[in-house]
Structure formats: C-alpha cells, structure tokens
Amino acid sequence: MAILSQLSIIHLLWAAMVFCQYEDYDFEDEYDQEPDHQHPRYFNPNTQAGAPHFPFPVECARECFCPPAFPLSMYCDHRNLKTIPNIPAHVQQLYLQNNYIEAVPAGPFTNVTFLREINLSHNKIKSHMIDRGVFAKLSNLVQLYLQHNELEEFPFPLPSSLERLLLGFNKISQLSGNALEGLPNITMLDLCNNFLDDSVFKGKPFSNMKNLMQLNLCNNKLQTMPPDLPSSLMYLSLENNSISYIPENYFNRLPKIIALRMSHNNLQNIPRNTFNLPNLLELNLGHNKLKQVFYIPRSLQHLYIEDNDIEIINVTLMCPSFDPLNINQLTYIRVDQNKLTNPISTYAFFCFPHIRTIYYGEQNASVNKSTQLRIPVFRRFLTPEEFDEAEDDHETHDHETEEDHEAEDNYFHPYF
C-alpha cells in the first residue's frame, strides 16, 4: 500500500507539472515573432487556411523554399534568379518577386493546374518575352502581380478567373480593343505609373467589367476623366495626371464610390453638385487650381483641398441646408497652402457637428510669401466618449508639423 501511495503522489506531481507548463505557456509568443517569409501586404493571408498538411515532403524547385507549414506555396523571391524554375503541379501560390527575370516561357508552367497566385513584381520582364497564352491556360489563377517590370503592352490573353491584376510601374501606353475582354471577375485593376493617355478610352475598355471595384490610373498622361466606368466601382485613383475638369453629372453612374483621389491635376472649377454621392467617405483634391469649394455629401468624412487657390471657404456652398435627422459626417479638413486670411466660419461647426480637425498650416496669402493663421490646427473639444475613442491618435496629431503633412501627401499607396 505504501508503494501505491507513493506512486499516486508521483503521478499527481507529474500531472501538476504538465498542467503548469500549459498554464505558463503564452501562445501569443509565437505570433510576436516575425516569420522568415512574409506574404506581401496585398496578398490575402487566409488563402491557405484550409490547406492540407502533407504527411510526406512535397516537391520543391531547388532554387526555392517550400515551407512545410505552407505546402501549397513556393517562395523564390529575392534569389537573384534570371529564369523561372520548374513549378511542381501542386503549387497554388508562387512568389518570384525581386529577381532579374526577363521572360515568362510556357515551359515551367507545363504541369501547373492549381496555381492561384503569381507574384512576378520587381523583375525585368518585357512584353514580347511573355509566351502567348502562358497565363490564359491557368484556369484557377485569381491574382497576378506584374508591377515594376518593363512591360510595353497589356498582357493578353488572361484567364477569365482573374480577380486582381497589378500592372503599375511599367511602360504600358496602349490598351488594345480586346485586352480587357473576357475578364468578368476582375475586382481590382492597377495601371498606375504607366504612359497611358486619353486614347486608351476610345474602345471603352472598362465598360464591361461589371465586378470592378477598384481602378488605379494615377501617374499617367490623362487629360480627361475616363468615360463609361462600370457602376460597380468603389475606389478610383486618378492622381498625378493633367485632368482639368469633371463633366457635369459624371458621377451619376457611379453611386457606389467610397474613395476618390484626384490630387496633383489641373482642376479649376467643380460643378456644384459633382460629388453628390451617397457613399463617398474620402475625397482628395489637393494640389489643383481650385478657387472655391463645392457641395459636400453628407457621407463624406475626410476632405483634402490643400495647395489650391482658395481665398474663402464658403460654408454655405459646402452645406446649403441642415438636416438634424441626416447629419453631415465630415470629421477632417485639410486646407493648408491656399490663400486663406481668416479661419473657416463658425457656421461650419453647426453644419458639420462631427468636425474634429481643420488643418490650416501655412497659407499663400500673398505672392511669394507664406503666412500662418493664428491657429494652424483647429481641434474641436471632444466628449469623454470621443476622447477615449481617439486617444491613441491624439498623441501623434498633437505634434503635427508642416513636414509631416508634406511627407504624408508625397506618399501614395495605390491599394487604398
């Protein structure tokens, strides 16, 4: 009996020790460490949530890395590759960015049937070095990243399964009439930083893209607004072009627009009700030639009209009527580098009761001379509830400088 009692005590001590190990173990420790191989930020991190764990080592190109935890991915990025290695048939995510690849031949893709993502960004690929149809045969391809290459033409043909296509930072100057045909599932198309001009709109290339939600055309050579955009569009980026006007009623066909970015253009006058959009949250018209403000939709939260020629902020134009049952949601206005000599009328706080910040900064009130209003940054007093909600932001914003805003304006992330 004594021996049994001793064994029972030992058993209890062992159980307690095991329990304490789990009790003291911090499961978050694993997630605090950065993984060696990160997905690019625009990839969906959940694409492999249901990926099976193979009980045996999977095939992998010798130039690449295939982590056991992600058996459907092959990482070949940042490896000074000049050619695409052979791709095992089971691979679904292929990462080849930041190499010296110049061509996309059909050979490496011969046995690939399940490929869903390809990242070939930051290489040296030219259009004539892409074998015709190499992408089109990939019937499960959803995301294709070809930004920061040397493409002169839009890659064609592409598979109808494609949903996200990034072609920014290339040398594309034309879109052939059928380039975008047969892509009914595209939701995001990035063509920023190319050589596109108004001639690309002659064939109305975007009109049949019924699921398109985000279109990026920033940093091109456009002089007019792109016509016949699909009504599904929610995010439109047109920064750094030479657009001088917005046709009246232009946005009537685009009621779902949430964010519109048109800074660094040549806009001078905005028709009064141009932005009468029920879902618009962000409007950026900074660095243009505007002389007066315009109607602000009730949904708008952030308005950027810095570096224009505005002398007076006419609040009545922005808010012609007040509806207590449908209050304006505007919270932030940036108006620095205009020609203001007086702060915005206090009527603005009646019309826009949610305003928290008006950034005045420096004003170009006289020729070749900057002046500063008495209050460079106005901040509305917050209720205790609002203060708790914005507490984290206050620490940063309280130290805002002109340089901070200039740096913020120069940085543009085309993926909203």
From TrEMBL:
<keyword id="KW-0964">Secreted</keyword>
<dbReference type="Pfam" id="PF13855">
    <property type="entry name" value="LRR_8"/>
</dbReference>
<feature type="domain" description="LRRNT">
    <location>
        <begin position="59"/>
        <end position="93"/>
    </location>
</feature>
<keyword id="KW-0765">Sulfation</keyword>
<dbReference type="InterPro" id="IPR003591">
    <property type="entry name" value="Leu-rich_rpt_typical-subtyp"/>
</dbReference>
<dbReference type="InterPro" id="IPR032675">
    <property type="entry name" value="LRR_dom_sf"/>
</dbReference>
<keyword id="KW-0272">Extracellular matrix</keyword>
<comment type="function">
    <text>May be implicated in biomineralization processes. Has a function in binding of osteoblasts via the alpha(V)beta(3)-integrin.</text>
</comment>
<dbReference type="GO" id="GO:0007155">
    <property type="term" value="P:cell adhesion"/>
</dbReference>
<keyword id="KW-0654">Proteoglycan</keyword>
<dbReference type="GO" id="GO:0005615">
    <property type="term" value="C:extracellular space"/>
</dbReference>
<comment type="subunit">
    <text>Binds the alpha(V)beta(3)-integrin.</text>
</comment>
<dbReference type="InterPro" id="IPR050333">
    <property type="entry name" value="SLRP"/>
</dbReference>
<dbReference type="InterPro" id="IPR001611">
    <property type="entry name" value="Leu-rich_rpt"/>
</dbReference>
<keyword id="KW-0130">Cell adhesion</keyword>
<feature type="signal peptide">
    <location>
        <begin position="1"/>
        <end position="15"/>
    </location>
</feature>
<comment type="similarity">
    <text>Belongs to the small leucine-rich proteoglycan (SLRP) family. SLRP class II subfamily.</text>
</comment>
<dbReference type="InterPro" id="IPR000372">
    <property type="entry name" value="LRRNT"/>
</dbReference>
<keyword id="KW-0677">Repeat</keyword>
<keyword id="KW-0433">Leucine-rich repeat</keyword>
<dbReference type="Pfam" id="PF00560">
    <property type="entry name" value="LRR_1"/>
</dbReference>
<dbReference type="Pfam" id="PF01462">
    <property type="entry name" value="LRRNT"/>
</dbReference>
<feature type="region of interest" description="Disordered">
    <location>
        <begin position="388"/>
        <end position="410"/>
    </location>
</feature>
<keyword id="KW-1015">Disulfide bond</keyword>
<keyword id="KW-0732">Signal</keyword>
<protein>
    <recommendedName>
        <fullName>Osteomodulin</fullName>
    </recommendedName>
</protein>
<keyword id="KW-0325">Glycoprotein</keyword>
